[in-house]
Amino acid sequence: MQLKSLRIFREVARTGSFVAAAELLHTVQSNVTAHIKKLEEELDAKLIERHGAVRLTSAGQALIQYSESILSAHDEALSLFRKNASPRGRLRIGAMETTTALRLPPILAKFHKAHPEVDIELHTGPTADLIKGMMAGQHDCIFVAGKVNHPRLHQFRAFDEQLVLVSGRHMDKMPAPQELQTATFLAFRQGCSYRQRIELLLATHGVHATRIFDFGTLDAMLGCVAAGMGYAILPSMTVEAHRHRFEVHSYPLPEEIGQVTTYYAVPEMDTWTPAMTAFADVLRRATDAQVFT
Amino acid sequence: MQLKSLRIFREVARTGSFVAAAELLHTVQSNVTAHIKKLEEELDAKLIERHGAVRLTSAGQALIQYSESILSAHDEALSLFRKNASPRGRLRIGAMETTTALRLPPILAKFHKAHPEVDIELHTGPTADLIKGMMAGQHDCIFVAGKVNHPRLHQFRAFDEQLVLVSGRHMDKMPAPQELQTATFLAFRQGCSYRQRIELLLATHGVHATRIFDFGTLDAMLGCVAAGMGYAILPSMTVEAHRHRFEVHSYPLPEEIGQVTTYYAVPEMDTWTPAMTAFADVLRRATDAQVFT
DNA sequence: CCTGCTGATTCATTTGAAGTGATTTGAAAT
DNA sequence: ATTTCAAATCACTTCAAATGAATCAGCAGG
């Protein structure tokens, strides 16, 4: 059984004429006859009564229902891939906690408004997990800190973040090495790239190991920092956005380790769904000239 | 896009291998490659990532969902027509009021028990309407009184009915012609074949016209007969079955006009759905040797 | 770094099926 | 009986699917 045959069958049923169906489907009448005949042979049942008026038999009426559902699913699939059609389906975005909290909301809102037919799935996790998930085909696109060293993964600068040292107490300069040596640091769970910055910071101060606590969410982390549990390293914008909720103080990290770029990573363009294309479009507009250079 | 291609695509996605898919579908792997390539060209998107492990791209994952729904609908349609598979779908039976009330219930019960997957639609109406409906493709099969004179309509004796004259008063012989002349008759609405029998009965008694009231349901008719409104002509079995609910009396019609056979009429066998085949089977068994001679 | 192995691609060739147009058949209307 | 319209049939063309051999790419083991 072939889609072409079903399409012809449906048209004959609709128009009640072999000739009319042939014209509508841009073929000749003998071809219509052949397709119907083939269907009838395959199913071993007469589908159409052709004595005077062309009418569906009981078997034909049973088949037409399935034809409709098969053909409509087929048409829908085709329309999903048609360029310049409004995108539908699923879009699975992976992003870091901080990106999700601060940068994504306005972009997702804009995207959803422009393409309400797309179901957005937002998965949050540390950079390492995101990359692994992307390779396993669990995300369509991800936002990660720093460039990923992987062929067939295209990357674009999305956001530039200035990292700050966050504390419950006021700081007017970088704390002394011996202070950092004994202090506790709060970081996202294993795999977060900001965590590496902590190590880097300590190293520049000649300090080696220290205690690092794992946190799953931004709220928990900022709450504990405000309570004086220890230091954290976070993007400046993130801290600013939450300052009204937590009493925390921050001090900028030195230029060379305090600058972090969040990249938008996607597979090659020819593997994109229309939803991904549309999202990249919105993203480009939202981040202006930074991406897709 | 072709069903064959989708089937191959699905198999590749499932097995994660072109070779495995080729073997399972009894073809060669170059053919698998060709089909996937064709799909990719048609949709203008890379569906499968083939570097080391064969994996679906985002576009591929979007397509596979539609593939599943298309293919499962297709498989279901095929299984619907496969002989010796348990029938599914719809069965639209047309029958006269009296047949519906008396003869069909046990048969339908038996059929439903044997084939619970079939949705039975029972349409009730007078013989003439049933035949018209059958020609218009509204019924799959009908039970009618008397043989239908129509080519490409197969008919089998289903039930033999003995007609009786029904009255609210006791009768020990056929009422006199002058009684019949002035009496009122109750009958089903236009098109019922039993109605013709009334005319026939009157004619044999040399009586011409009389008043005939139309009724839609058996209950209303028997109720009015019991109340003394007039006479009715009905199958003996029908009257017997309702005797406990209505106080009516009956007297058998003479042999030559009192014998009515209910026929089971269906289109040619090659237009049947499997549900129709199964029903004919149950019907044959239920009515023993009477049908399908 | 080479080498062999596995698995996908490419290509030339065969095969078969789909499409075409002329013609015939069949049913209904005149 | 005749005309007409629509579907079936048939011979022929054309295009696409399937095949198998050869090639190429990635990967593991030496």
TrEMBL record, chains A, B:
Any Pfam family matching the protein: LysR_substrate
Keyword Transcription regulation included in the entry's annotation: yes
Listed PROSITE patterns: HTH_LYSR
Keyword flag Cell membrane: no
Keywords of this entry: DNA-binding, Transcription, Transcription regulation
One of the record's GO molecular function terms: transcription cis-regulatory region binding
Domain annotation HTH lysR-type: ranges: 1-57
Coiled coil feature spans: none
Protein family: Belongs to the LysR transcriptional regulatory family.
Name of this chain's protein: LysR family transcriptional regulator
